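User: Please fill in residues for this 293-position structure.
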């Protein structure tokens, strides 16, 4: 690294708000891009300008010299990529952190162009692949909108589904709140450890512990989440799976197993399909291999 910023926990918002205030008066600002592609930037600049230097130093825990050098490098380097992962995305203030980063790229027009832009590195393997096939509660496959009737019709016909949700479901944080207050009484956790990875992890653990029925599919027998499982299903690890993975740069890679399947472990898709069959949906889940799906 040319510059390492050992930032204080949750100091990201202050750092990028300070950067935005600096950019507002620098030659790097792209007024044409702002006018053509954004709304409300005057308010964003005003909010950033309200952060004084002493508060910036306090919230970031960085010396003024390092902050000035970071601002200089961002201002004078045309091709800037800001990579961020779980420390930003899976935080109790994650939305504010991401917005602060995006605003700096929007202010300089360094977004959607070769060699520049914000770059979210997802926290779980193949998270992008899951999104692409409709694995989000608030989005359909291929990033189509649940709220859009035409998108719903297109996906419903492709899936050959008798019904399709007309409004978004609960995102992860909201879902665990619903578990906590009793609106959700059954939970199936796959390939993740939310007791560790979620914001407000103690509250998430309390919610899972109180849930009447918890199923966990994992390759590990003992995790902070599996200890709350009423049913624990052994799953396949990445070297045992057959399918595809979408990487951070959107490349789809063919994945072939190179390890034998251990014990009674089963693929996640097989577990889902088997439960669906026993619930009476055999025709819709008539899969024998990943290629069938």
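Assistant: Residues filled in for all 293 positions:
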């Amino acid at each position: 690294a040319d510059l390492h910023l050992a930032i204080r926990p949750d100091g990201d918002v202050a750092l990028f708000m300070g950067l935005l205030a600096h950019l507002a008066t620098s030659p790097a600002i792209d007024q044409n891009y702002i006018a053509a592609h954004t709304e409300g930037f005057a308010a964003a600049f005003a909010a950033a300008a309200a952060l004084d230097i002493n508060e910036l130093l306090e919230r970031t825990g960085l010396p003024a010299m390092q902050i000035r050098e970071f601002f200089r490098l961002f201002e004078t380097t045309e091709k800037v990529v800001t990579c961020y992962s779980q420390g930003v995305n899976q935080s109790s203030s994650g939305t504010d952190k991401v917005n602060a980063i995006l605003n700096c790229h929007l202010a300089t027009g360094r977004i959607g162009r070769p060699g520049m832009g914000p770059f979210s590195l997802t926290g779980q393997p193949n998270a992008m692949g899951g999104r692409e096939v409709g694995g989000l509660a608030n989005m359909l496959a291929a990033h189509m909108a649940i709220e859009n009737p035409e998108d719903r019709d297109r996906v419903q016909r492709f899936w050959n589904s008798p019904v399709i949700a007309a409004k978004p479901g609960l995102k992860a944080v909201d879902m665990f709140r619903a578990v906590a207050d009793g609106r959700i009484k059954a939970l199936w956790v796959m390939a993740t450890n939310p007791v560790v990875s979620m914001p407000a992890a103690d509250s998430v653990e309390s919610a899972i512990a109180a849930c009447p029925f918890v199923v966990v599919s994992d390759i590990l027998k003992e995790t902070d989440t599996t200890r709350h499982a009423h049913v624990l299903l052994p799953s396949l690890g990445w070297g045992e799976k057959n399918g595809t993975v979408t990487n951070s740069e959107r490349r789809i890679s063919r994945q072939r197993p190179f390890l034998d399947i251990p014990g009674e472990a089963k693929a996640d898709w097989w577990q889902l399909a088997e439960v669906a069959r026993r619930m009476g949906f055999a025709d819709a889940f008539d899969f024998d291999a990943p290629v069938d799906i």
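For context: Residues 127-169 form one domain.
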